[in-house]
Design the sequence.
């Protein structure tokens, strides 16, 4: 993989963990994504500054399997996250590696990481509620001639 | 200060999901305006709503949601108060609904109107004015100028995806977006609920998010009555700036 460190553009991407998944919205495209537990762990680790090459080590304490065997899955989801513009290449920030999320004992099964794409709220999410609304009010967009 | 209100639609019978939503309002001290379908309101639901409104007048609001929640738009769309209804037809339905709810709830009824499927026309607001309504609540996806001195408090965020009502991702994305944009959304922010369609997971999500909102000190929860009262006071203050 060309890049080893990624960051999240906080102005363009918002995300949150809800129980078993992370929901992330790219506010520039209006597309939102759901990440299953494994993908969520990888995404949050990247957002916390973990290098791609250290992901398996950083996440290992949570999982029962040897994560070195899932390197291809990890690289694939990193590539998908990058392609979706949820992460962008960054620089090492000198922080220590993020601590693994609880639980610290290996209890999880490493499912193939999945990034699901949702565009059913795109019109709403991409609209600037202050500057791009029409006379009818938000969420009706401005007509081009306005 | 961020002003927010919750509207719940399609209230007519005493269902477990209705009890649960009322419980959420009471537990978190968050007012909810319940849109009651007059023609199908059951005696049990009337008792329940009157009882809880009387004991928690600031948290429960009862307003009119259509008349029968019947679709008159045929195959072309949805709407009980849409373009296929004449002024007289709308006036009749609106009046019957209002009379039914006034009889059922007396002073517990607040004269606001939310049209089923959020569809309305200028004739709707004309009929509302004729009958003394001053508050409309419509919203996504249908927004037409109100006119007739009717105040519209639209719901802009619907926590359910009507194509796939049980998809939790959608509801979570709505809340994530709301929190991300909370300071920038036009106010008041209206959130639409449908208790009958909400799953156990959706209820849990709603409670979690209400807890977060409670912790956000800048958020004030409203009903249509408090919003309208605030608007009127503000207008009065503008007319009489020196009056204290």
Sequence:
């Amino acid at each position: 993989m060309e890049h080893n460190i990624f960051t999240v553009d906080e102005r363009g991407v918002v995300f949150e963990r809800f129980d078993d998944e992370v929901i992330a919205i790219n506010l520039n495209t209006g597309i939102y994504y759901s990440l299953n537990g494994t993908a969520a762990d990888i995404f949050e680790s990247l957002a916390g500054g973990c290098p791609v090459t250290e992901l398996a080590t950083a996440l290992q304490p949570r999982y029962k399997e040897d994560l070195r065997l899932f390197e291809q899955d990890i690289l694939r989801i990193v590539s998908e996250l990058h392609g979706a513009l949820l992460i962008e290449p960054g620089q090492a920030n000198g922080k220590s590696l993020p601590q693994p999320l609880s639980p610290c004992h290996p209890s999880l099964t490493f499912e193939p990481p999945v990034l699901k794409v949702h565009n059913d709220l795109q019109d709403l999410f991409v609209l600037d509620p202050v500057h791009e609304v029409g006379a009818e009010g938000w969420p009706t967009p401005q007509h081009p001639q306005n | 200060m961020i002003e927010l209100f919750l509207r719940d639609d399609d209230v007519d019978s005493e269902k477990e999901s209705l009890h649960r939503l009322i419980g959420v309002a009471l537990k978190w001290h968050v007012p909810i305006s319940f849109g009651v379908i007059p023609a199908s309101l059951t005696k049990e639901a009337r008792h329940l709503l009157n009882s809880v409104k009387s004991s928690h007048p600031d948290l429960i609001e009862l307003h009119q949601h259509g008349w029968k929640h019947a679709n008159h738009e045929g195959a072309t769309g949805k709407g009980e108060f849409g373009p296929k209804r004449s002024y007289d037809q709308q006036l009749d339905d609106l009046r019957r609904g209002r009379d039914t709810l006034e009889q059922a709830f007396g002073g517990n009824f607040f004269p606001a109107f939310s049209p089923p499927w959020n569809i309305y026309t200028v004739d709707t607001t004309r009929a509302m004015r004729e009958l003394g309504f001053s508050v409309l609540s419509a919203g996504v996806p249908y927004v037409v100028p109100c006119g007739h001195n009717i105040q519209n408090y639209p719901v802009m965020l619907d926590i359910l995806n009507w194509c796939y009502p049980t998809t939790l991702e959608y509801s979570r994305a709505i809340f994530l977006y709301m929190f991300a944009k909370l300071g920038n959304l036009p106010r008041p922010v209206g959130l639409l609920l449908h208790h009958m369609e909400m799953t156990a997971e959706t209820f849990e999500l709603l409670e979690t998010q209400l807890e977060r909102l409670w912790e956000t000190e800048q958020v004030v929860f409203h009903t249509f009555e408090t919003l309208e009262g605030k608007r009127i006071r503000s207008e009065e203050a503008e007319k009489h700036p020196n009056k204290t």
Notes: Chain B has a mean pLDDT of 92. The domain at 2-239 of chain B is CATH 3.20.20.370 (TIM Barrel).
